Amino acid sequence: MTRPTAIRRLNAADPQFARHLDHLLSWESVSDEAVNQRVLDIIAAVRERGDEALVEFTKRFDGLDVARMADLILPRERLELALTRISPEQRQALESAAARVRSYHEKQKQDSWRYTEADGTVLGQQVMPLDRAGLYVPGGKASYPSSVLMNAIPAKVAGVAEVVMVVPTPRGEVNELVLAAAAIAGVDRVFTLGGAQAVAALAYGTQSVPQVDKIVGPGNIYVATAKRHVFGQVGIDMIAGPSEILVVCDGQTDPDWIAMDLFSQAEHDEDAQSILVSPDAAFLDRVAASIDRLLPTLERAEIIRTSLEARGALIQVADLEQAITVANRIAPEHLELSVAEPEQWLPRIRHAGAIFLGRYTAEALGDYCAGPNHVLPTSGTARFSSPLGVYDFQKRSSIIFCSAEGASALGHTASVLARGESLTAHARSAEYRIKD
Amino acid sequence: MTRPTAIRRLNAADPQFARHLDHLLSWESVSDEAVNQRVLDIIAAVRERGDEALVEFTKRFDGLDVARMADLILPRERLELALTRISPEQRQALESAAARVRSYHEKQKQDSWRYTEADGTVLGQQVMPLDRAGLYVPGGKASYPSSVLMNAIPAKVAGVAEVVMVVPTPRGEVNELVLAAAAIAGVDRVFTLGGAQAVAALAYGTQSVPQVDKIVGPGNIYVATAKRHVFGQVGIDMIAGPSEILVVCDGQTDPDWIAMDLFSQAEHDEDAQSILVSPDAAFLDRVAASIDRLLPTLERAEIIRTSLEARGALIQVADLEQAITVANRIAPEHLELSVAEPEQWLPRIRHAGAIFLGRYTAEALGDYCAGPNHVLPTSGTARFSSPLGVYDFQKRSSIIFCSAEGASALGHTASVLARGESLTAHARSAEYRIKD
């Protein structure tokens, strides 16, 4: 445990830098054929046999001794009970985090709009919440109460009438903090189900589990594969890859702070990725020294070491300008700008899930309680996707209400274009509305 | 051609109605194993051999006699040339439609926002356009200039710097209207590529084709399968099913108009779905008579007849109240409310891609030029998804900038929650920021 951590050093001045960076970032999650086939079989069984299949799979995979579906339902009172089983300090922390998350997300809510044209034609967009959302919460070690808040609160803020949570309880282990978070977030129903069978139940519904419109929340490879398969039948959030942080530092932050920020990402799992970019080579050395000194003091030292050695890097750049270029290439899930006057760089950041500005803004604050969501696009998908938000639980319908005059004018244009596409029924339907 | 159209009649009063409706709506698009494997092979070849593979596949699949990649690039001047090759009336119609589509979509544009808390902590959301979008346009019969407008304009309104279009030209057939629409919509680059190879090129980039951040646009089963496979590497829009319309009519609209509105959907292809719901049984009879009388006069009569007989329906309900319940169960792509005072029903519509209000608002007007997008959620996915819009080409980054005081307060909460999750590096990272 005391050997130095062999964390990769890269230099942007190296002619091979782009290639090395590509290699560092390369990640493809592959569901192998065996996983795929098992998941398809599970989905088929749940669609066919409903509750019966759920009970059977839960006995087999979660080692639960249950006889009927009723044993897999947690009533609302059980969630309330959990609130009394956690410490008052924990309850206070969950409630304070929930309040801040709710307050931030309320600003994301989108409203319907419309406008009327000169001829009386009305155009607009009606925004509505989804009817029902499903929230997958992993069991065991990756069972995070903070994720319950981050997934359920945006749905409730959007106005989703019913939020249904599934959480496996392998060998009967119940996480009281998770249930307490569900109570605080306003989760409506909880089933102690997990794996592909839980995803299938939410997507298609069974006698007891209601069909939802969208499934969100993290899970293992079976859950991710099942979500991919049911996509289209229901909506899904992103398929998350390993978590990552990119810290850009000007060399003036306490190196222990930066080391700990890198650790906080690396402790998630061996595939997590922590990268530091700085124009100050001596600072990179100081952070490396902090890493070596602090690592042995951490509970998850082995996971962190594996992660840092496999996927971490300390990258030297010419200046902060170049650091930002590297950041945009990486499109990181979490970007810490641990620099003086971080705001000046903000308009230049093109791709990042969440941006943490200044030396005080540790990623961990955002993970739990700053307000923004901690479900963020990973593996460079910040190029085209966004944090989980209220907008993920709202949907839009276009509104078109033509006046007689408006329809007549539009009818001419539509007729020409429809005939250009050889769609003559379209043309004639439009032409009926043209005034003589 | 003159036998009556055997369009299904359903009655919501029938105890079996729910089951019949489920059956009517059932649709699952399946990519069979052979298609899947061919697509995976094509993607692998394009990733490995780039342009060379593109030239090879295009020769083989599109029957094009091309020697090198340069032969598959259409310069901007070629698009401008197309504007002179279409009729002035067509150009005028395209420009008028584009202006209306642009004007509507500008209202969808989302702005960055932020707020400052009492202790100086700043929270917000930075909204940015994607860097580059790819637009797939089918070749041959399904090559629609209106789709070019509907896919490219939202991207340009969002501020996407480069819109790259791919369109196959089987046996060298070029659709001048499609190129003209591309010129008007501001498409930046065009490659005459199609199929899974075009999708792979956009997703991974080749020597000539730039990698994009998101791929939108309709395509055949190979294109849809390829989009599903590259999802994650790039963003994609929805995987569209067959197009559908649901017309709700109070019995007071000219039955010929309604028949033609149903035809306009059915003429797309044999799998398209046209459904009419009315409380007026005699009106359903009148529409059936209009269908029989008008059908033989249509260019695509065979397609329409097949579609109506396989997937169409005339549904009798007790009242408009019940019609709206049926509409919400169907969650149609297109919903026409051909009734008196349609506005009163609007707040009750929970799921629909686009809502056409009043007797004058034919779906065809919305397909071409009313302003809203014609790329809409199909097969009931309006339960959880929205029309294609500017928001599909924008993405968000969360902004967190803690003051020293703010970080200290948040540090306490984060520390408690992180320790509850056994993530002690998270806890210690937060604790560093707590003031003594």
Automatic annotation (TrEMBL), chains A, B:
Provide the top EC class. Answer: oxidoreductase
In its UniProt record, which GO terms are filed under biological process?
Answer: L-histidine biosynthetic process
Q: Which UniProt keywords apply?
A: Amino-acid biosynthesis, Histidine biosynthesis, Metal-binding, NAD, Oxidoreductase, Zinc
Entry-linked Pfam families: Histidinol_dh (PF00815)
> What Gene3D superfamilies would the database entry show?
1.20.5.1300, Nitrogenase molybdenum iron protein domain (3.40.50.1980)
Report the cofactor remark.
Answer: Binds 1 zinc ion per subunit.
Which residues act catalytically here? Answer: E333, H334
The UniProt GO MF terms for this protein read: histidinol dehydrogenase activity; NAD binding; zinc ion binding
Residues bound to substrate: S243, Q265, H268, H334, D367, E421, H426
Residues reported to bind NAD(+): Y136, Q197, N220
> Which InterPro entries does the record associate with it?
Ald_DH/histidinol_DH, Histidinol_DH_CS, Histidinol_DH_monofunct, Hstdl_DH
The cellular component terms of Gene Ontology attached to this UniProt record, alphabetical and capped at eight, are:
cytosol
Q: What is its EC number?
A: 1.1.1.23
Q: Which cofactor does it need?
A: Zn(2+)
Q: Where, in this chain's numbering, is Zn(2+) bound?
A: Q265, H268, D367, H426
Q: Which reaction does it catalyse?
A: L-histidinol + 2 NAD(+) + H2O = L-histidine + 2 NADH + 3 H(+)
Q: Does the keyword Iron apply?
A: no
CDD domains for this protein: Histidinol_dh
Q: In which pathway does it act?
A: Amino-acid biosynthesis; L-histidine biosynthesis; L-histidine from 5-phospho-alpha-D-ribose 1-diphosphate: step 9/9
Q: Which NCBIfam families match?
A: hisD
Q: What does this protein do?
A: Catalyzes the sequential NAD-dependent oxidations of L-histidinol to L-histidinaldehyde and then to L-histidine.
Q: Which HAMAP family match?
A: HisD
> What family name appears in the similarity comment?
Belongs to the histidinol dehydrogenase family.
What is this protein's record name?
Histidinol dehydrogenase
Q: Which gene encodes it?
A: hisD
